[in-house]
Amino acid sequence: MEQTSLLLLQGEAGRRDGYTLRSPLLLAGSASARLIAAFMNLPVSVHWFALIDQREAGNRAFKAGHNIKASGLYAQGIAAAELEGDKAAVAVMHSNRSAACLGMGAVEEAAREARLCTQQNAAWSKGYARLGEALLALGQWDNAVDALKDGLELDPHNAAIQDTLQRAVTSSSRHQ
Fold it and tell me: CB–CB of 44/25 below 8 Å?
């Protein structure tokens, strides 16, 4: 039996994990979400359910270390989010895909996905964190430092970005 938690949110103000929910629905297992949406007669598109399906399946694959599968699922989620017209969701999916690409050693693709993430949501620090990590893996230390500084401008107390920035600065100084 699928275990899931349901989060009911109201209107445009509802936010979680970078998503802005356009209806009073959820981040939940899709089967449960469909039942609740049908019962409550909520106006939720098929694309929204596809987005949730792909994100959840991608997250499970990523956590299990199946980066290639996760990358493909996130790509499908990007398509669904674009059809839904939700730029924040597109950014989250590009960020997740960047992490999956980095995990499988496709560092140029990871950097490309992170750049797409920051283009979709320039105000989200995690996109710059992903970009900095990918650029660091590519050996582009100065560019990584710049991206990570951009992320810290948005979230000055983010310990993960601070740690990655320190690694990038150290790598940059060693290679000069």
Answer: yes
Helix (H, G, I), strand (E, B) or coil at 104: coil
Which residue did the predictor score with more confidence, 48 or 101? 101
CATH annotation of 9-120: 1.25.40
Hey, do 9-120 and 123-176 end up sharing a CATH topology, with the first three levels equal?
yes
| Two tokens, residue 52 | 């949730």
Coil, helix or strand at residue 19: strand
What's the rounded Cα separation, in Å, for the pair 132 and 105?
15
CATH architecture for the domain at 123-176:
Alpha Horseshoe (1.25)
98, amino acid identity: S
Token pair belonging to 18: 């970078």
Q: Helix, strand, coil proportions of the chain in percent (round to 5)?
A: 70, 0, 30
pTM of the predicted model as reported, rounded to 2 decimal places: 0.75
Looking at the DSSP bridge assignments, the partners of residue 123 are: none
Question: Is 70 exceeded by the pLDDT of residue 83?
Answer: yes
Q: At 96, is the pLDDT very low, low, confident or very high (cuts 50, 70, 90)?
A: very high
Distance CA 77, CA 5 (A): 20
Q: Among 132, 53, 144, which residue's Cα sits nearest to residue 93?
A: 53
CA–CA gap between residue 96 and residue 75 (Å, rounded): 10
